[in-house]
Every structure is written in C-alpha cells, then in structure tokens.
Amino acid sequence: MKKDFIRDYATAAFVYWARHGCPTYDEAAERIRARALRRAQGIDPAKALVYADAEVDKAAAGLCDIMACSETFRVLEDSGKVLVCDAVRAVYMVEPWKKPQQHDISSRVLKFALRVPLSERQVWYYLDDARKTFAIMRGLRVEEDEID
User: Fold this and answer.
1) DSSP H helical ranges for the chain
2) Which of 38, 62, 84, 86 has its CA 20 to 30 A from that of 14?
3) How does pLDDT run across 102-120, given as a tens digit for each residue?
C-alpha cells in the first residue's frame, strides 16, 4: 500500500484544529498572545509584548494549519459541500484528545455512512476531497493528478 503523507498530515491537522476548539487564525493567535502576556506579568510591558509576539511567531506552523483548516471548511461550505465538512467532523474531529485506536477511523466512516445515508466509498471520497482541499489551502506540494 502506498504511503500518503498528505493524508496523514491533513488528518493530524484536523485533529489539532478540533483539539483547540476550531478557532480562526486570529482567535488562535490572540489566545497565544494572551497566554504569553499572562506569563510575562510583572516585567516591563514593552518586553512582555515582544515576548508575546515571539510566542506567536514560534507557533507559526500550528497557526498555518489552523488557518488552512478553517479556510478548507469555508471553501467547502461556500461551494455547497457541507456534507464533506460533516464527514470530516464525524470521522476526524471526534474525541480529538484521545489517541485513535486501530479501526477507529473506519468504524466512524461506517457510522457516518449509515447515519447520512451514503456508501462508505462515498464517505472516503469526501474525506479525500477535504484532505486535498486542505493541502491546497496549506500550500503543500500536491501533484496535479492527485487533485482530481
């Protein structure tokens, strides 16, 4: 079986986004900044602001993932693919703090397929569509033949 790195990365990003409460980029950056300012209480306010900005800069990769996830959902919803977003929520964003056990993803796909109703194959296709959209939003290298 061919290893799909984009699948793994996008799946982890959706879980990461859910773990943080599905914020926008600005909300997540403001949370980081506020947490850094709380830690820096009692020091010079100018230095505290520099420290807070440095903390936001250190979290740039995670913030870009958050931005890509929120943009993915926005693009999918704007194009009428709300069911794709529902599939991502039902499969990848359930219990984001818990490490998935073997077959958790496939059992969630089956449950979602039965609830909607769709075929399992269609749910997998929806998840693939969401992952590819995420990869494009995140600026990952995607081969042209993988997009469609």
Assistant:
1) 5-19, 25-39, 45-58, 60-78, 82-91, 104-115, 120-138, 144-147
2) 38
3) 889 999 999 999 999 899 9
